[in-house]
Protein 1
Amino acid sequence: MNRITYTRAQNVKDALHQLSTNSNAKFIAGGTNLLDLMKVNVLKPDHLVDVNHIGFKAITAEADGGLRLGALVTNADTAYHESVVDQYPLLSEAMLSAASAQLRNMATNGGNLLQRTRCYYFYDTSTACNKREPGSGCSAINGYNRMHAILGASEHCIAVHPSDMAVALTALDATICVSGPDTEREIPITSFYRLPGDEPHIDNHLGADEIITSIKLPPSGFSKHYTYLKLRDRPSYAFALVSVAAALELDAQNNIIKARIALGGVAQKPWRMPEVETMLEGKPAVSESFLAAAELLLAGAVGYGHNDFKIALARRAVIRALEQAVNKQKEP
Ligand code: SF4
């Protein structure tokens, strides 16, 4: 049995201080992924710092017309918040497609963004996994890899990031606000996550001594033409094989003024290519334009055997998501 001590932090400074005084401490908020990892001995912290009482539990309007989501607001309270539903229905839809109602009631926004891959081998300590144990090898590359990456993978890891929320936030150009011992900084979500390269054990650019405090959304929420299309093995409580967050701004003739496309379930980070979105600008919002976008997005896709089907699936999902976005009517 592993002995674990527990303390409750009063504020951010206190939380960061408590983390710094124990080299094997972890923050705990909703605990929906951390406890899973502890139960199977993937993580063995000897101290937990409870951050549920340090604030950041509000969703507030920003002066520029955007919205700030506290890192400790639950996924359920975020997805159902009136301003999120009105201004950012893409985000609400993506969050409600994730996990189960019980998990969404516990999981926090900060924790959602930091959840670890669901690669089966990562959770099985009897197997080699470079993400869990750097240098040990990757069991998935020549193993069972049906859920794994088709874009941005490396010879060291082919895992995918599991968050639906992160995919929608990437399409919406959100910014992650973090606090460290001496500074606060803002990281565009498009620069927050890492591809595996030769350091697959590092998922993102959050410092070991930092904590996410909030997420900022810009004023434009693409609330008229959007969709979150999540394709998975069963219609609820399953991670995406492929997901697409699609958002469009259209003129009166249905030509594309702006486009945003982010893919989930295909890489270690939400996959977005600005050149694809630029290519769509000025084009008619029709299937031919969307096919060209899908081809470009998936041009570099590589399968590893069991997941080869994902390339064609992702291509079709992009086209269908964009078509749905054109025709989407937000529910009153
Ligand atoms: Fe580990 Fe990544 Fe390989 Fe999965 S894909 S076994 S997480 S190294």
Protein 2
Amino acid sequence: MSSVTIAVIVVAAGSGTRLGHSEPKAFVPLGGDTILGVALDAVLGMRETPHVVLVVPAERADETRERYAPVAAAASAPFDVVAGGATRQESVSRGLAVLPRLIDTVLVHDAARPLTPPDVFEEVAAAVRARGRGVVPALAVVDTVKRVDASGRVLETVDRSELAAMQTPQGFPRGALDWAYSHAHEEYTDDAALVASTGLEVDVVHGDTRAFKITLPADLHRAEQLVAEREGETAVAGAAPAGSGNGGTPRVGTGVDVHAYADDQAVPLWLAGLHWPGERGLAGHSDGDAACHAICDALLAAAGLGDVGAIFGTGDPALDGAHGEVFLRETLRRVREAGFVIGNVSVQLVGNRPKLAPRRAEAEALLSGILGAPVSVAATTSDALGFTGRGEGVSAIATALLMPA
Ligand code: CTP
Ligand code: MG
């Protein structure tokens, strides 16, 4: 059973009437994903892994589970998808209904605020725990606010120093939120209002302009621009030190991977992209090809793009038994996208078996073909020392050289 004590309920069951898109709002494309997908990434960006509940239109529940369960699994986050209701309030209460008993802190978040930074979630959660009451992020109202009648006539100016615009995630001790939801008789547009209506206290902390809600087409346009900027920054942070674009210097990267031999004698051995009939296989979520994984790590490191673990989650069912070639091709795509060409790659296997020499040329030709650059493959034993010497597994060490494209 999971020991997670915090949950984030992401409400995404609205239709998005004001956005006027053919898809429900949360399923509208944003930055190569959906509004919901971008919101989920922010939630999973929290340092403390939460239990995530996505509340979506009933007819979208299966598709949502299929698409996003692997994303949550890659972050080791417990994950539920539930069908929403006719109002936001009903959707939240359906999310609340599935929370495990151990959850003591609940954050309710609008999927329609996908660019809310993870630190807002963390700040709200910390404040809820420290104060033992509801906490809501909010921004000061900067415009002058007036009360206006139905005919458009100004009635009075409202003192804006007492006003604040509410955002999400809104956080509560679980008991308080459950209690308030079971006692609310009216419809409220946010959880703070509902909780306050039952006489419980709610505090405000500083919100973040990036937590704005996508309501109208212009908001979606703004979100697209912010995502593009953010991705540009990531690419710059990763690639600029290489000097790409300014005729800069080459970059090297190193990668190491280790796989134990599988207990099951029936597992085939895949190493350096080749199948080795009659040899004992390696254990792993994928095919256990340590050489290919080490090469990917070396390439990603050289490009400043992180590592294999971060990109190919072990929870991804698509990678179950996947061959090294799948990892290499995706890594190559990312490296090229970041503005590099591969100079060369070298990988050395450390282990007693298999004997590489008879198939070295074959391995080098295969890997060079996949990466479109020279790959040299070497092997050594570790002189009977350590786990490789005892024949418990194989390790591989790779170095990659990249050049600005
Ligand atoms: N929401 C929900 N269930 C509903 C209504 C709204 O889960 N029955 C969610 C929306 O998906 C959104 C958040 O509550 O993430 C805030 O609602 P809003 O911005 O009003 O979204 P919509 O109701 O979808 O948009 P509109 O009001 O323009 O139709
Ligand atoms: Mg609405």
